[in-house]
Known about the structure:
Blueprint: E1 3-9, H1 16-29, E2 34-37, E3 40-42, E4 46-48, E5 54-56, H2 57-65, E6 77-81, E7 86-91, E8 94-100, H3 101-104, H4 108-125, E9 128-132, H5 150-156, E10 160-165, H6 171-181, H7 184-189, E11 190-198, H8 202-216, E12 220-225, E13 246-248, E14 257-259, E15 261-266, E16 271-272, H9 278-281, E17 286-291, E18 302-305, E19 307-308, H10 311-321, H11 323-332, E20 337-340, H12 342-347, E21 350-352, E22 363-365, E23 373-389, E24 403-415, E25 423-428, E26 431-437, E27 439-440, E28 446-449, H13 458-471, E29 480-482, H14 515-529, H15 532-539
Parallel strand pairs: 1-9, 1-10, 2-9, 3-6, 10-11, 11-12, 15-17, 15-18, 18-20, 20-28, 21-23
Antiparallel strand pairs: 4-5, 6-7, 7-8, 13-17, 14-29, 16-19, 21-22, 23-24, 23-25, 25-26, 27-28
Helix pairs in contact: 1-2, 1-14, 6-8
Amino acid sequence: MAKSLMVQGTGSWVGKSVIVAALCRILRQDGWSVAPFKSQNMALNSFVTRDGKEMGRAQVVQAEAAGLEPDVDMNPILIKPEADAKAQVVVMGKPYKTLAAGDYYRHTPELLAVAKESLARLRARYDIVLIEGAGSPAEVNLHAHEIVNMRIAKLAQAPVLLVGDIDKGGVFASLVGTLALLDDDERELVKGFIINKFRGDIALLRPGLEFLEKRTGRPVLGVVPYYHGIVIAEEDSVRQSQVGARFTVPLPLDVCTVPLLDIAVIHLPRISNSTDFEPLQQEPGVSVRYVPMYGELGHPDLIILPGSKSTIADLERLRERGLAEAIVRRAAEGTPVIGVCGGFQMLGKEIRDPEGVESGAGSVPGLGLLEVTTVFEEEKATCQVKARVAGDSGLLAGCGGQEVVGYEIHMGRSNGAEARPAFHVVERPDGLTDYPDGATDASSKVVGTYLHGLFDNTAFRQQLLGNLRRRKGLGPDATSVALGDVVADVPVRQGRGCAPGPTSPSAPTSRVPSKEEHYDALADLVRGSLDMERVYRIIGVKR
């Protein structure tokens, strides 16, 4: 049976998922077959496996780092929060129940049995299983019912590495306090600490590290720097600290530039699969900003309505905050709009929920930008697909017939006799097929689709961005302009020695690194930061 190692944290967002992904890649590089595992994940970013099952994105990222096809055994329980303090519980990739928070814990004994079986299957197939915890193991109010932290560590008899985030502050108190609140048998499983997201001079940190080791009797296995330029998909939706911020690929500091394209993603209260837009954030010359409910839309080059776990509730919030009216107004002025999944449903004429699948509203009007009506159904569509672009004008100019891959996760169906399909789905894992997906308006400046992962398709993404640049009278490959050229409603990013003056848009200065290169860069960083010899001894295998 496989050896195991568990990574737990002092809280959420301390970097557990990324550390596990890095260790997956390191162990793979060193010749081990390694698989990730997280018994229970609460997230709105999810993925559909080849066999049509839904799982959390974090374990998909870790599987990719390990060189594996994502498998629902890696995340057997997925909790997707909905409106009204409820959540849809997905078990082994399929909807199980929609439960209120207090009701969930009545089901944990049977869910623990499911997780135990998944872990056993992974341990029978791989050399090492890397287990991720959730939140903190020291949540004493949840201790009796939790099935994702120390209960899993004891089940697997897995040594535990405890991760703390020094960038938040209070890392030593967090690590010591977490250890102190554990039961004696749980405390014995903690074999070392990892301090994550460090900035500054390591020499100034050493007295704290010495104190921590002396106080707890456990080693600090390494200090991982706060990194920039390595892109690893987030476990959950956009963090609150990122809402309103802009994401732009850095350009040389001796160039005084503005990004050419301003893309506004509407940050819905229950935004799902926000990882759909990370490929756009990595394109040179593209600024992606997440517009909050209370924010100003401005005059972007593209508006994106993302997916939502509660489409009707989020659409009502858009109306309450005035963003719905602003989106319709910008579309009438010619600003392109893309809706993905729930965002696509919002762009239609009406959303109906006769069975109360999502809400008790019955039906609500959509934004009216697409000639489709959505009807929610009990059955959830989850499937990987291959499709071809149906349109060849507007946003889709030059894309006609192009092949894209993605996946569907949705509860409703959208139809309209007058709607023009945006894509034709031509293949599913069970064979060839042919059915329309999404819709466009007459000009193809408004596009809706159910395809998650659409922007991961490089040729499609770059053609679409080229079309946006052409609308502004720019070259299709332009990435930046000098300070004197006012071409975008985005803030100027000034570098050293900036001298305003008009120049021609520059060509791309570098290619976008591949996902594999990002995983390798993360592995190099973490390998260089940790005492890997000691980590191997903790796991119980030779390097």
